[in-house]
C-alpha cells in the first residue's frame, strides 16, 4: 500500500518563486483541474491520496516534494532553499508524523526534496541554488546508521536535480545530459530526453508505470520503445511555476 501526500493548489500560485523560467499567467482553475487529474492518476496506480488543504499565503505549497524526503526508516524534513517556502514544512511534518519518525535539516543547511534522487540505498543530492553541501553533510550524519550513502551531484541550468534526471525503472534513468552528467550515477541504463524537450526528464515511477507530462510526446515515445508503461498527465499550468510530476506528491509505502 502506497500513501501519496498532496496539497491543493494555492490561490497565489501565480506569485511562485521562479529561477529559470519567465513568469507567465497561470490559470488557477485549470491548474486545480490538472492537479485533481494528477491525483486521480495516483489513485489509479494504487496510491491512497492524503490531500492537504491549500495554503493561501504560500504560493509554491502545492509542490510538497520539496518539504521532505521519506525513507522506510524515517522522514527527513527539509529546510527549503527559498526562504518564502520554509513555512510549508510544518504542515508536511504533521502529515508525515503518523507514518514515520521525523528528523530535520537545520540551518545553515538548505535542502529541497526535488534535489534528492534515491536509487536503492544511494541518495544523490543536487548541488543547486536550493540545496547545499552543509545539508548533504547533515543527511550523511542522519542516515549513516541505516546504510545509506549520500552524494552531492553538480547540476546546471535547471532548478533541481530531478529536473535533470529521474528513475523510470529499476535499472533505468531518464536524463537531460545538458543539465547533469549521466556518468555520475554508475552503470545504469540511460534514456536521453529529446533535445527539443529539455524539461522531459522529470518523471514519476510508481510500480511499473511512469507518470509523465503529456506535453513531451517524443520523449514519451522513447520511454515506450524501451518497454516502459506511461500514464500521461497534463501539468502545463503547474509547469509554469517550475513544477513537474514528482513535485506534486510525496509517495511512500506504509511500513
Number of strand elements? 15
CATH fold name: L-arginine/glycine Amidinotransferase, Chain A
Shape, principal axes of CA atoms: globular
Uncertain parts: none
What is the total domain count?
Answer: 1
Strand order of the largest sheet: 2-1-15
Strand content: 25-35%
CATH superfamily: L-arginine/glycine Amidinotransferase, Chain A
Number of contiguous helices? 6
What distinguishing features does this structure have?
255 residues, alpha/beta, L-arginine/glycine Amidinotransferase, Chain A, three-stranded mixed sheet, globular
Describe it:
By secondary structure, the chain is an alpha/beta fold. The protein has a single domain, classed as L-arginine/glycine Amidinotransferase, Chain A (5-stranded Propeller), CATH 3.75.10. It has helices spanning 28-44, 89-96, 133-143, 161-164, 217-225, 236-239; strands at residues 2-7, 47-52, 68-70, 75-77, 102-104, 116-119, 122-127, 149-154, 165-169, 172-175, 189-192, 204-206, 209-213, 229-233, 250-253. Strands 2-1-15 form a 3-stranded mixed beta sheet, sandwiched between helices. Strand 3 (68-70) and strand 4 (75-77) form a beta hairpin. The longest helix is centred in the first third of the chain and has 17 residues, at 28-44. The chain is globular.
Amino acid at each position: 500500500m502506497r500513501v501519496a501526500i498532496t496539497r491543493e493548489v494555492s490561490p497565489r500560485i501565480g506569485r511562485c518563486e521562479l529561477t529559470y523560467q519567465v513568469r507567465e499567467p497561470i490559470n488557477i482553475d485549470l491548474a486545480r483541474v490538472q492537479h485533481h487529474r494528477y491525483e486521480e492518476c495516483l489513485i489509479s496506480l494504487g496510491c491512497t491520496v492524503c490531500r492537504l488543504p491549500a495554503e493561501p499565503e504560500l504560493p509554491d505549497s502545492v509542490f510538497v516534494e520539496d518539504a521532505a524526503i521519506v525513507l522506510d526508516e524515517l522522514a527527513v524534513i527539509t529546510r527549503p532553499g527559498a526562504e518564502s517556502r520554509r513555512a510549508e514544512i510544518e504542515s508536511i511534518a504533521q502529515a508525515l508524523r503518523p507514518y514515520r519518525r521525523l528528523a530535520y535539516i537545520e540551518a545553515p543547511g538548505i535542502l529541497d526534496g526535488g534535489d534528492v534522487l534515491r536509487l536503492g540505498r544511494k541518495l544523490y543530492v543536487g548541488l543547486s541554488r536550493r540545496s547545499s553541501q552543509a545539508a548533504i553533510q547533515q543527511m550523511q550524519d542522519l542516515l549513516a546508521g541505516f546504510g545509506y550513502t549520500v552524494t552531492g551531484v553538480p547540476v546546471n541550468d535547471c532548478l533541481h536535480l530531478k529536473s535533470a534526471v529521474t528513475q523510470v525503472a529499476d535499472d533505468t534513468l531518464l536524463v537531460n545530459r545538458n543539465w547533469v552528467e549521466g556518468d555520475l550515477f554508475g552503470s545504469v541504463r540511460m534514456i536521453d530526453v529529446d533535445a527539443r524537450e529539455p524539461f522531459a526528464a522529470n518523471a514519476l515511477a510508481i510500480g511499473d508505470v511512469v507518470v509523465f507530462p503529456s506535453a513531451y510526446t517524443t520523449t514519451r515515445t522513447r520511454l515506450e520503445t524501451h518497454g516502459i508503461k506511461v500514464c500521461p498527465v497534463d501539468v502545463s499550468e503547474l509547469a509554469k511555476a517550475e513544477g513537474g510530476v514528482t513535485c506534486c506528491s510525496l509517495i511512500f509505502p506504509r511500513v
